[in-house]
Amino acid sequence: GGDLQPSILNNDYELTTIDTDVGWGCIIRCTQMLIAQMLTFKLLGRDWRKLKNHQSPENFDKPGFSNSCEMTSTDKRNRAIYSNILSWFLDFPGNAFGIHTLCELITEELKSDGWEPGCWLGPATAANIISTSVIVAKCGLLAFQLSDLHIYIARDSLIDPEEVYPSEPESKRRDDDQVVILIPLRLGTSEFNKEY
After folding, report:
1. Angle at 45 between CA 39 and CA 50, to 5 degrees
2. Which residue has the higher pLDDT, 66 or 29?
3. How far does the chain reach from its first CA to its final CA, in angstroms?
4. Is 117 in contact with 16 (CB distance < 8 Å)?
């Protein structure tokens, strides 16, 4: 968990004074990690790896760091893409995949349950939020980067190939579109099942 900017909206869209995600933010942070990995694969490829420690983005602006000989134009492009991906997750309102945006989406989805930041949520809700956040991001500045990305959520752990790759001509999916399949699974309702 970590410190937050204290401006998360509650169920009535009023600002709350929550200033940490300790004790309740683990599933949201896991959701963010999954989205970040998904975006890294999509925008940088599966073979891409973060630069070595001395070449990490936080060191680029430090005095004495020389990147002119060490970085190719591809490295510089990838560094910029990676920095953009990271910026989409900053804990400030308005960032596409920041905790504030995800909490707003969760609050809307679980409105009838009275969910507010600080409350627990499960993997099915997390999967729905991944799908919704990608759809919302497609409506904004990330539309171009995410236009060919689709999220499929397996209900009851079942994957229907016809839903993943629809064959109807009116389907908006192209053959080369990328599909992320999420299988939300809770390993116990109130305690961890040791069989898993």
Report:
1. 80
2. 29
3. 26
4. yes
Residue with tokens 């591809």: 74
Residue 59's SS3 state is: helix
Question: What is the spatial distance between Cα 67 and Cα 76, in angstroms, rounded to a whole number?
Answer: 9
Nearest Cα to Cα of residue 57 among 87, 33, 94 = 87
Quick: pLDDT tens for 40-71: 999 999 888 886 554 555 555 555 555 545 77
Rg (alpha carbons) of the chain, rounded to whole number: 19
Question: Tell me, what's the pLDDT at 56?
Answer: 54
Q: How far is CA 168 from the centre of its chain?
A: 29
Task: State the number of CA atoms in the 13 A half-sphere of 41 facing the CB.
Answer: 11
User: Token pair of 172, please?
Assistant: 């908006």
Count other C-beta atoms under 10 Å from residue 195's C-beta: 6
| Tens-place pLDDT, residues 72-89 | 888 889 989 999 999 999
- The answer to whether the pTM exceeds 0.85 is no
Q: Where are the alpha helices (DSSP H) in the chain?
A: 26-44, 73-87, 99-109, 123-138, 143-146, 161-164
